[in-house]
Amino acid sequence: MDLISQSFLAINSSLELDRVLSTILEAIKNLFGVVGSSIWLKDHHTGEVVCRQAAGFQRNVVKGWRLAPGEGIAGWVSSYGDSVILPDTRKDMRHFRKVADTMQVELRSIISVPMRVKGTVIGALQVVDKQVGRFDQSHGKVLEALADASATAIENAQLFEQANREIAERKRAEKKLKKNEKELKDKSVALKEVNTALNVLLKNREEDQVHMEDTIVANVKDLVMPFLEKLARSQLDEKQTTYVEIIQANISNIVSPFLRQIPMKFFDLTPTEIQIADLVRKDKTTKEIAQILNASAKTIEAHRNRLRKKLGLTNQRIQLRDYLMTLV
User: Fold this and answer.
1) Largest interatomic CA distance in the chain
2) Distance CA 194, CA 208 (A)
3) In whole angstroms, what is the distance from residue 249 CA to residue 295 CA?
4) Which of 39, 75, 99, 256 has the fewest C-beta atoms lying within 10 Å of its C-beta?
């Protein structure tokens, strides 16, 4: 009774499953002094019974062995939930000889009892020996008492093991989440930096464009227009004078801020319509525009009407020139 009491205390002294199983088998060794003992637990995924821990002769051969439901004494006890005291293995067909053959030792006596948790069989506690008739009912009662205590200790250890796995998984998830948050933060900072750099580049590009346009306009005014004005004041015939006026008008159109900006506002205007719009802004009459562009007054008038339509001025009491003056 002292040994049994000490065994119960030892079995329930730990929450580590492997230690609990080893303690159970150590208690059996002290109580029974047998060749071997083992703990078989059900695998709920496959339905098999697995030797989770073994002690005694060639324990490593037995540990990890799997039995189908009802196979062998441990499989039968785990399936039907009844204890088995087998005085002679040669006289019972339920004995699974393959384990003994692998161990190269003949096991003649077996006692196997079910382990239950809240009425449900979770496996079997088994003791074996080479001596025939080694076990009786008194051994069965002691082993059943140990099985009850062992089942509770195993359940507690399994719950503890599961809780540790869940905690570890949660920690891994939290670590991964923090890593992802850091990566997102780093990417956000990087995107902001890229965005800032792009804004600077765009601003520099706009400034360079403005500077280039200003340079072109200044060069045209300083290097081209003066000579054209001198040419216009020189002795030219009527045709030459017209050509000079066209050249002056076209150069003015090229450097005109109005002509650089109006295509951005009205993408459907043709180049000719843009030219006419610029000349209208300069207060040129239909006849003057016709002369400058070498076209008929009727054609220029048709262009003016299309301009009003495209600019949304049809049936509105507003002068075309007044509206064009508001665009730039």
Assistant:
1) 143
2) 20
3) 15
4) 256
